[in-house]
Recover the amino acids of this structure.
């Protein structure tokens, strides 16, 4: 390596036109390289699923929570209360409260920042936020699909289209003279011409060659970063073609699955029953897992540190179909809203299987972060070096009591492997979360939310 070279934390590889790829955090971007090598970054990501979890299913790593069993040594399970709300509507009433802990200003405006943004604004204001996931129906309010909120309570709507997530995180794909607003046809043409990586190869060779200004560990990190981007690029096109998106025209899709007929992948859909799109649960899962892979890649590459990944919206109105087998049992998803068919009708067996489906996909995301092939500088996994907070909008069948939450990873600061039900308010739990980042526990105070218990009992 040449003499020690200092790089900006916001250093980008720039290609033709406006192509830009963010780099992971490298040793050379830090003022003190020793600190960069030993101190993990501050990360707080929330992960949402809809329709709640029966209190009897929250207590251990069995039943619907069985998919988390391998991660139990790194997870704490918690039940919280969502009772101090003021807006109307079954799902709307708590949607802007989850991950915030303040009374809503209105049905779609939260009472303050979500916990990921609260921590970001305090400890790492320039870090990038990613909010993404998959769902279709938002029902009575926008808040059913919004999980990330700014300090003034306004939402940061999530991105549903994987290619747009990819471009936002790793670089846009425009070329000279085309501008930033591209049609789907233009994006297809561009993807068929070249990979985003092809436009930055000269700079890549400079950073990884014999005359690189980077140390060996940083060179390896750049190589792994770009190899991972290439791998995800190759995955994007077939899945998005299946889901009615704008994938590569060079991609060959074998067979046509049961997909949403609407091409409006990024638009909200109102209505329930026949008014919502229907799809086989495997297709829904494939699309979510691509989001999970993208999110895990963004965290591994350290280009994102805060945000949310959603598996369905509050209310969960995508009309799933197909036979699902788990826990020695089976159900045929109804092809209409499982919200109505299972939860309104109090069908415990079917709802239990549906929530196993949800948790198995959230567990998939956590497993990507806990991959031992992607250890960080301190020898720990990305999950170890992150705080992942899982939550839902109510307890059972529209009850605001005993709403399931969990924390995974958390820098080893939480009592893992067990379940805590102290009937604490969600704000109490969120205060315990942010306290591990050095923030004072004052969530709820500005909007008159009363503490209902000391959540620090979940901390080591």
């Amino acid at each position: 390596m040449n003499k020690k070279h200092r790089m900006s934390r916001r250093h980008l590889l720039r290609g033709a036109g406006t192509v830009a790829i963010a780099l992971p955090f490298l040793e050379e971007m830090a003022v003190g390289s020793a600190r960069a090598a030993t101190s993990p970054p501050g990360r707080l990501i929330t992960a949402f699923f809809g329709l709640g979890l029966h209190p009897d299913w929250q207590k251990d790593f069995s039943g619907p929570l069985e998919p988390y069993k391998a991660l139990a040594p790194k997870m704490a399970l918690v039940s919280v209360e969502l009772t101090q709300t003021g807006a109307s509507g079954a799902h709307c009433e708590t949607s802007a409260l989850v991950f915030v802990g303040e009374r809503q200003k209105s049905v779609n405006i939260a009472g303050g920042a979500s916990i990921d943004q609260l921590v970001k604004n305090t400890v790492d204001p320039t870090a990038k936020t990613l909010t993404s996931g998959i769902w279709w129906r938002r029902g009575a309010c926008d808040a059913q699909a919004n999980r990330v909120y700014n300090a003034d309570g306004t939402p940061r709507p999530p991105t549903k289209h994987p290619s747009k997530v990819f471009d936002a995180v790793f670089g846009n794909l425009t070329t000279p003279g085309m501008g930033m607003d591209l049609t789907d046809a233009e994006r297809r043409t561009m993807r068929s011409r070249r990979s985003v990586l092809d436009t930055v190869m000269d700079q890549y060779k400079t950073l990884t060659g014999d005359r690189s200004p980077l140390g060996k560990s940083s060179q390896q990190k750049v190589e792994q970063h770009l190899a991972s981007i290439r791998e995800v690029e190759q995955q994007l096109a077939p899945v998005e073609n299946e889901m009615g998106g704008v994938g590569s025209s060079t991609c060959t899709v074998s067979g046509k699955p049961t997909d949403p007929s609407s091409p409006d992948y990024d638009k909200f859909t109102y209505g329930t029953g026949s008014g919502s799109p229907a799809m086989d649960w495997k297709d829904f899962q494939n699309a979510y897992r691509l989001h999970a892979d993208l999110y895990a890649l963004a965290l591994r590459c350290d280009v994102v540190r805060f945000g949310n990944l959603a598996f369905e919206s509050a209310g969960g109105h995508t009309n799933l179909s197909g036979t699902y087998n788990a826990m020695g049992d089976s159900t045929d998803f109804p092809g209409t809203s499982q919200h109505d068919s299972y939860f309104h009708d109090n069908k415990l067996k079917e709802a239990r299987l549906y929530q196993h489906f949800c948790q198995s996909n959230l567990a998939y995301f956590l497993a990507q972060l806990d991959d031992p092939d992607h250890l960080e500088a301190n020898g720990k996994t990305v999950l170890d070096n992150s705080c992942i907070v899982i939550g839902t909008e109510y307890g059972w069948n529209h009850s605001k009591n005993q709403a399931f939450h969990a924390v995974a990873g958390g820098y080893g600061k939480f009592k893992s492997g067990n379940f805590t039900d102290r009937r604490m308010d969600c704000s109490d739990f969120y205060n315990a979360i942010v306290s591990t980042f050095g923030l004072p526990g004052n969530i709820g105070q500005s909007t008159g939310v009363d503490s209902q218990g000391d959540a620090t009992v979940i901390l080591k």
The radius of gyration is 22 Å. Residues 31-37, 172-180, 187-194, 238-264 have pLDDT under 50 and may be disordered. The first strand starts at residue 12 and ends at 14.
